[in-house]
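User: Run a structure prediction on this.
Assistant: Running it now.
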Amino acid sequence: MTTFRTATSHGLLRDLDSPGSVIEHITPNWFASVMGTGIVATAAATLPVQNVVLHMAAVVMWLLASTVLVVVSTLFAAHWLAHRRVAQAHAAHPVMMQFYGAPPMALLTVGAGTSLLGVDIIGQSLATSIFVVLWTVGTALGLATSVVVPYVMITRRRSADTVALPAWLMPVVPPMVSASTGALLLPHIADGQWRLAMLVGCYALFGSALVTGLMVTTAVLGRLLHGAVLPVQAAPTIWITLGVIGQSVTAANLLGADAAMVFTGDRREVAVVLRAAGILFGMVMGGFGAMMFALATALTVHAARRGLRFSLAWWSFTFPVGTCVTGAAALGRALESSVVEALAVVLFAVLVTAWTTVATRTVREAYRGRVFLPA
């Protein structure tokens, strides 16, 4: 081990004892890098302003997200095989277990990108097939985490000073991602009862994640308002609260728009109501999102002044902001509002800036090997 450190003291993985240490601490929050990269692609594909350069950039980001998904999944599987006790300890850790919600959301995000952008590379048929598989697996895993993780938290013995954390949202939000990405799947389902069942199912997924997510967000805000300030290094996770907000606005408006494919003829009034409900929900939730965006920004600045250092938690700056982009874009289309659509473009610029910063730091720290060390 000493020989390895000496040989690489100024090169690749110089902070590790040996090359094998790379997989020793591959935790589920690594999948947040897939989520953050994938949302840049899907957000770009849904912007109200489109051009060839933007589309090509979106395709490149989707390919990058797909590659990162394969790499991280391989490393994560190797971690479980080679370091099972460490992996089990992570899965039992009260904070780290929350991030088991990241793998299903990573699958769903890449799946959505495949549907929106993969056609250019692999064709419509294969892109749709891959999307169906990723959506199905991601939804199943997301439903599992939304039940299993809260169950473990409820039934396990814990200290009396346990407090709500933004990370608690991670295992319960995946069904909302399934709802919004499921809207992209609806046109590929046969008209009639199957499409109706899919729409109803997506609304059920929407409701499950929305109610639970708002409950957790309320608990987190209550904790913060009562003086239990987040640790400096955990400050970026406050942005996770924006994920359920942005994703819910996206889902409500995409499903409301797709309702017209299901409710036709004498039932078209139902589609009108659902579309109007999505618009109303988006406007109301958008106000809450603006407040949380400002609060998250202020808390991040506060943490930066207290010595916030880079960690994988910084990926919390990306995916939640991306959902705000897709939410604003979907609401802007529904309202036919150029102001809301312009907001989506501004938020996308913020997203790209955040992704560039976090991705650059991640690559640099991965080269040194620092991000592979235990947190």
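The radius of gyration is 21 Å.
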